[in-house]
Write a structure and sequence with these properties.
Six copies of one chain form a homohexamer. Chain A has about 160 residues and is an alpha/beta fold. Chain A has a single domain, classed as Rossmann fold, CATH 3.40.50.620. In chain A, about 40% of the residues lie in helices and about 20% in strands. Chain A has a five-stranded parallel beta sheet with strand order 3-2-1-4-5, sandwiched between helices. At the A-D interface, helix 4 and strand 5 of A face helix 4 and strand 5 of D.
């Protein structure tokens, strides 16, 4: 019985918190598809190609992981990939509240897909892509928050 | 003693969750005014006229209900209508937090108007107008989330 | 159309927060039944008779209010009284969480009974019977938290 | 790669909410061990033997499920069973708060064991063993909350 | 041992809630620097100069308080000022959730700076600059929410 | 201007989380009084004398700290000690909810005493005296949760 899980997100950019969840997930599932959301109307700092490229660079060496874009309903993507599970990382209560709502809605749309929640390492409990971008923009130290490669990409983007 | 309650919202568009609250409210109050917020600067998918029209269509047959636009402070509208109560539906904790703040502020502005909170049917606990729009946009199945008429309006809007 | 609401609680003892909710409720409903929970196994500071007596004293002069004990399922009591609504006061988030659970369970048991939530005056947002008892026990000042009569009863009970 | 998950609880008694989580879990994992907590000092309505018997009866026919008692640290039990994952069902925000704390503590005690959270069917979102016992005690209708066999056991216990 | 605290915010405009926190803070610390955030890309109703001017006017007479703009990482500003503490006012749960995240992130960036949380007077528990602006825009009564001077500035801005 | 803060608790037993808050607090205040609650009716694992002794041992070497028992209203103790501030550590949302209530109640009882909230190091975010006792009882590893001396006391108590 092969189990595939989808880990969806915007990854603008990927952080050490995301990578931590992926590493925990791959111990449970046979394969994880990191699904990079593409939304024509929502503006991101990095393009879809850049976000995928940064993920590939950051997850190099990890086995059983695939990175793919998606621009459809999450449940439709999950079905198309023959996956059974959606993984979501939760840090804080407010996170969970929104995640709960999405999970129930997705169950309504596709009853056979389960959403499971995982907690990242406590040292990443304050971490989000938005915070990383805000700190990087002001030249703050993000060495422990993202891989070195991502740090460089952020500095290039902000012309620091 | 005639009791009138105001049920305010943007209704962009009305969902089965809204309709559920209205049906529950009308068992308690003699009259419910569904107050459709009009905010010139906030963009909505549907125009004020469309939102009112969709509500009229969805609430057809229900007695003691009036649908009216408002573009003023909620408490001023409530007073003008000689209503005594504001009804708010709450689904999740984060909802309630914001609602609590609004209710206390409105009490500060008009001490004689009470806000009461009601819970929609559990099957609508994940439901919001934003989620419905997001799912409809991707062609997802919203048959159980909005009346058929609203579904058609959404499909027309998104040219599906 | 006569509307009766039940306001259930332990009232061990009644506080200014409870009285505030009752006064707000009676502006909305034709009649409010203050239902005093009696649970043989749960120990209370005041006996059922004392709790009812203190409520009667504190609500003297308010019209359309009845005080009654109950030792059955809340929904069974509500039906027997031909009431349609249960009123609950909510102060904090954690309150609401528990209340939400009870309201959904009661709806499951009796679909035609609605639970509505009301917010007490902000100055009572920290107030609970337990806190009042704790403060009274140490001789703290509870003048603004309970009616004078209740204060005296607490002092007698704690032999202050 | 065989994946075993442990689903711990008191199950005093098992409810339809527990059964729902177990059924969802077994679609993800190769084997689920339902671990029944035994705590000499914590009083339960049903004895350990009764709780296990009721689980066996309720889960009859489900494959890849084992029911076992434990009276040690959860992480020690999980290791002894060569399991890698702990499953927890979460219903409400307050649930999650406590669960989050336990999961982080367990990770501290055993870094290689992951806790994952799953959401039961929305119709069980208000359901807990305590509520079931309270309703059963008063003769309320629990037909949709527990299997028929559990209902009978509760009625026998309460001599209804 | 001189203790300086920084109280950062957008203050668009300052409210009675902010002033309440500052007055409470000055009883604890030797000096408070009210740090007015300037973010070129985030639009505010009042310009940086106007926001500082309104703060100066509202805090006139209070000793040991300095008002200064900042457009850098908060922790960098705090260090430059030789301050040791960041003060944040918290009103509601959702507030605290976000504040918690910011405080942990700031500790990560500068381990020797402590964030402390204070609660404003309960009568301001519903108060925010956004709500004040919304009410003022509709000509609502904000007499108890901001100083008279701020009220006049708001009315001028909205050409009421 | 000498500033004294009171840090109240049961400390049954003191954990690394408590010690972390005390160390952070002493950087802000001139003196911290660690106030050990004594409640004749509430049973604790360690006696008042043991709890004070363990605190003394754990805080040895830290300056400007005093450890004292109290069995009265917190605000009365704070006044008697000429302190102006109460320090509380907050970890999770549910913590804060309860703390918020206590702080507002204490302000009602003594308006000139401020409660401030501080966050312990993230690695102690899951830590509580109850959890430590539960883990110690089962022989779990608590090396990173309490000082070695406390660990020994717990093992002696549980006769491990």
């Amino acid at each position: 019985m092969k189990k595939t899980a989808v880990y969806p997100g915007t990854f603008d950019p990927v952080t050490n918190g995301h990578i931590d969840i992926i590493k925990r997930g791959i111990k449970i599932f046979n394969k994880i598809i990191v699904a990079v959301m593409f939304h024509p109307k929502k503006s991101t700092l990095f393009s879809l190609e850049e976000r995928i490229f940064m993920l590939e660079h950051s997850l190099k060496g990890l086995k059983n992981i695939k990175i793919e874009p998606f621009d459809e309903l999450l449940v439709d993507f999950v079905k198309k990939k023959n996956a059974q599970v959606v993984i979501r990382g939760v840090r804080a209560i407010s996170d969970f509240d929104y995640e709960f709502q999405m999970a129930l809605m997705n169950r309504q749309l596709a009853n056979d897909i389960e959403t499971i929640f995982m907690i990242p390492n406590g040292i990443y409990s304050y971490l989000s892509s938005s915070l990383v971008k805000e700190i990087a923009q002001y030249g703050g130290n993000i060495d422990t928050l993202v891989p070195m490669f991502i740090k460089n990409q952020l500095q290039r983007k902000f012309k620091l």
